[in-house]
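Write out the 3D structure for:
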Amino acid sequence: MARTRSDAEIESDVIDELKWAANVDEDDIDVDVHDGVLTLNGTVDSYFAKQRAEDEALDVFGVTAVINNLEVDLPYAVERSDVDLGEAAVDALTRDVVIPSSDIHVTVSHGIVTLQGQVDWNYQREDAEDVVERLAGVKGVENLMTLASQPMPSDVAQRIQKALMRDAGVNADAITVTVEGSIATLTGVVHSYAEKVDAEDAAWLAPGIMEVDNDITVAY
């Protein structure tokens, strides 16, 4: 029999999860759950804390989506100019061995860091965002980076399906993979948001894939 959870149970667990999480001050965060959809309101002291709160909430059993309305209210001690922040972002990206930093262009406006340029793989695009969001003084990150075109193997859909089968956290039998052009589409039903994310991560690793449409449904 499927396990169902009330919004009140989910909300209670989210609050506990935020209390448990490092780098997140739950006292200034309001949590509201409606039909499994979680809304976060309030303030945090860093953009990293905003993203961390969202990630922690998505791991709670029963949460199907998160609306992150948290505002970043930086302490005076970590406020920095756009020029200083831009230099720090470029330096951090240059030091990261995963990212071809010469292909990334950084602009900063009012604490919002925008990343542009082209990389070969989606994990490089995500890693660049992760590096920048940890910098002190960042109020937000806009990732406009694109992927370079790569040769598309004829059996790419089968490769993705096999990758899902190798992933211990994913029920590959519940997921269907279709590929049209350079776009992979995932459909099916899984039992946690984490499983949905893991499936998408696996699809992004396939050569030639430029976009992943994750239409997987989460049903608890």
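The mean pLDDT is 92.
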